[in-house]
Amino acid sequence: MINDPSLGKPKGSSTSSSSRASSQFQVERAIIKTEEGDNISVIHYVWPFFEARELDGVVDPLLRGDFSEDSAWKFVDVAMSCVRDKGSNRPTMNQIVAELKQCLAAELAREPQSQ
């Protein structure tokens, strides 16, 4: 549920532009289907790859390796910081935007790999 003024202010929400991740938005969990056909949370799917630092399990294979690994890990690190158990340990929306802009700038500045 998005923090929509017409719905009233959700309990505990913040209107600050630098509010913590998920303070203004309550969204459904992203679910994916495993090779076995089970539905699991993207977080639970990605976590083992994140811990093992195996980027291939995290990045969309359609990218065919045409990306900076440093930028990809930065992106993954930002995403994983947004799902920390304790809200006060999550980055602010301003921090998230700034870090993702850095990822994008690094990707736009690099030369694409030839396939």
From TrEMBL:
InterPro entries: Kinase-like_dom_sf (IPR011009). Gene3D superfamilies: Transferase(Phosphotransferase) domain 1. Residues 1-24 are annotated as: Disordered. Residues 13-23 have a biased composition (Low complexity). This is Malectin-like domain-containing protein. It comes from Arabidopsis lyrata subsp. lyrata (Lyre-leaved rock-cress). The lineage of its organism: Eukaryota, Viridiplantae, Streptophyta, Embryophyta, Tracheophyta.
